[in-house]
Amino acid sequence: MFSRLRSDIQCILDRDPAARSTWEVITCYPGLHAVVLHRPAHWCWTHGFKWLGRFISHVARWLTGIEIHPGAKLGQRVFFDHAMGVVVGETAEIGDGCTIYQGVTLGGTSLYKGAKRHPTLGRDVVVSAGAKVLGGFTVGDGAKIGSNAVVIKPVPAGATAVGIPARIIPSKAGESADASQERRKFSAYGVTLDDDPVGQALKGLIGTASSQEHQIALLWQAIEKLSSQQSRGDCVPGDALKQECFEAGRLNDLVGK
């Protein structure tokens, strides 16, 4: 029990630069309190003391602002960062090393009792502030859920989900989706500028348009050269594009690098 508590404290010290000491984590981190109180609640729930389990979880919610159903399964080193307003449903499963920020809902869309209604998070998943993960599917190891995303379908390991409804961005080439790497870099709040699919699409369109303009300018320059050699200056319209004027750099700055 104490070794697991030490592990929970250490994971907070590793992931939160605001954590200055073990004593501060023990006394001032509601995410740790919620995890510690969930364990007796879950024990009661799985051993037939349903009401007592719900009552302990209700007290934990009142004390921490984090609502974890006693039937939910939590792995080791789970960190609820800030986490006010987090809701974790009855059949949800949270894997080892996951980080969950404030306002997150791990909810269900089915009304059938006894069914798997809530999501399963693999190892080292990051669920950013305000995200809603709804349904009995799996979010793969090392996946990231962007802030305010609404995820209603499975997320592959190492991928990123952003938007409403969430769009899936696969893991980058050359990067392993295996979250078990010992020196894997932690991504606070889960999402970087490179994870915006709309921005990536716009950058692709800008690059294509710039390349096409360059090719058109080269073609007109070649036509002008040939026409001048043949003394046919009227072959090239006066407004033909012979110089590139597409401002790809400025447009990329507007979209965001």
Looking at the structure, the CATH topology of the largest domain is UDP N-Acetylglucosamine Acyltransferase, domain 1
Shape: elongated
Mean pLDDT: 81
Number of DSSP helical runs: 6
* CATH class (first level) name of the largest domain: Mainly Beta
How are the secondary structure elements laid out?
Blueprint: H1 2-15, H2 22-28, H3 30-46, H4 50-64, E1 67-68, E2 73-74, E3 79-80, E4 87-88, E5 93-94, E6 99-100, E7 105-107, E8 120-121, E9 126-127, E10 132-134, E11 138-139, E12 144-145, E13 150-151, E14 160-162, E15 167-169, H5 197-229, H6 248-255
Parallel strand pairs: 1-4, 2-5, 3-6, 4-7, 5-8, 6-9, 7-10, 8-11, 9-12, 10-13, 12-14
Antiparallel strand pairs: 14-15
Helix pairs in contact: 3-4, 5-6
Textual characterization of the structure:
The protein is α/β, with parallel strands linked by helices. The protein folds into two domains: 2-195, UDP N-Acetylglucosamine Acyltransferase, domain 1 (3 Solenoid); 199-255. Helices cover 37% and strands 13% of the residues. The chain has six helices and 15 strands. The protein has helices spanning 2-15, 22-28, 30-46, 50-64, 197-229, 248-255; strands at 67-68, 73-74, 79-80, 87-88, 93-94, 99-100, 105-107, 120-121, 126-127, 132-134, 138-139, 144-145, 150-151, 160-162, 167-169. The protein has a six-stranded mixed sheet with strand order 3-6-9-12-14-15. It has a five-stranded parallel sheet with strand order 1-4-7-10-13. Strands 2-5-8-11 form a four-stranded parallel sheet, with no helix packed on it. A hairpin with a 4-residue loop joins strand 14 (160-162) and strand 15 (167-169). Helix 5 packs antiparallel against helix 6 (248-255).
